[in-house]
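Structure first, sequence second, as always.
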């Protein structure tokens, strides 16, 4: 059950990490009063933050899939063991 909860936490964390990384790493417009125009300003290490956020999103996605599969396998195994011990006629094979 803990694995399934962790899988859900990882799934929820992916959009949060993505939005935080993109909001920091993205360029933004700044008004230049000298030339009466806008220009793009980039934060320091913006590209690095974007790449790290994308790698972290991929890792969280893979972890959520692995944890979800492991959690479901453990759930099915526990279900099978429980019904084999009780000797019910509709126990799965």
């Amino acid at each position: 059950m803990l694995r399934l909860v962790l899988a859900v936490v990882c799934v929820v964390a992916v959009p949060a990490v993505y939005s935080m990384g993109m909001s920091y790493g993205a360029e933004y417009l700044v008004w230049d009063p000298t030339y009466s125009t806008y220009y793009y300003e980039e934060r320091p290490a913006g590209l690095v933050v974007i790449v790290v956020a994308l790698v972290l999103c991929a890792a969280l996605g893979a972890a959520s899939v692995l944890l979800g599969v492991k959690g479901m396998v453990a759930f099915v195994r526990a279900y099978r063991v429980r019904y084999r011990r009780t000797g019910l006629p509709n126990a799965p094979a």
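Margin note: The CA atoms of residues 2 and 68 lie 10 Å apart.
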